[in-house]
Amino acid sequence: MKPLFSIFLLTIGALIASACGNKSAETTAADAPAEAASASPGADVAADADTLFMYVADQVAMGPRIPGTPGHDRCVDYITARLKRAGAVVTVQDTLFAPAHSSVSPQRVRNITGSFNVGAPRHVLLLAHYDTRPWADEEADASLHNTPIDGANDGGSGVAVLLEIARLMNSLPRDLEVELLFVDAEDAGNHNDDLSWCVGSQAWADAFDPASRRMPDYAILLDMVGARNACFHREYFSERYARSVNDLVWETARRAGYANRFVDKVGGALNDDHIHIMSVGIPAIDIVESQNPETGSFNPSWHTLSDNLDNIDPATLKMTADVVINSIFH
User: Fold this and answer.
1) Number of C-beta neighbours around residue 121 at 10 A
2) In 3D, which of 107, 78, 103, 77 has the Cα closest to residue 95?
3) What is the mean pLDDT of residues 30-45?
4) What is the pTM of this model?
């Protein structure tokens, strides 16, 4: 995933507007987010920081989760087993896919979905990518650029939050269908080819058929949500096309005392998985650190060998998980 404002994303924006029937986000997502944010799924239901950190550590211990490697296979098995243990209905989209008009060759994509409370009155999609960057191409030392990264934050953190929500689902209200999507092949993009990023979510969108499956009310993407002192600004495209979902999440965070961490300002415009979720007509937002004060963009560990467990803060993971839980169960 990278920051980007290009002809490609402007084209995607047009597709989003068309797919949504030219409705504003306020008419397609949750109504009255400020009122909803005051509700809670229950004071006794909260994410556990130690468990969240364990999920990240488990992933890092597998080695780099690059498609086609043993670490990636282990991660597929791990996520699938955790979802089944939590009681989810699990499906795997296992396909060969290449984006049209891209330099990317066909590759195996395994998108994993765990669904809870299927058929409940409301339906929310939560997603994160589980693959890791094959190259530490942001390292200052060019001799390290071909070294795979641990992906503790960039990949591991979002997966951890989804797995913790899965673990807690039996203790949460049953009136919400929660669809957890673990996206493959997000992070091996070429900076000269916009469509080489987020291949898994492109494959998911390509296979999406609203005539044969339920349309989620909205979607929340979690990407790089575990770094120390991470602050989350409203991502540009999220704000433009799903503002009421942003309002819901950021107001929930404010009421929980996290206004200094969920900053109520627009951040970067990002080429991330939510773009392709929006392309099928689902209002989608991206919770991601994109305005780090040191870099002006992503966390300093982004696509470097420093994206390891030392950079992960269990408190940040817990904050993010609790905000998402209290946002969707309104």
Assistant:
1) 10
2) 107
3) 48
4) 0.91
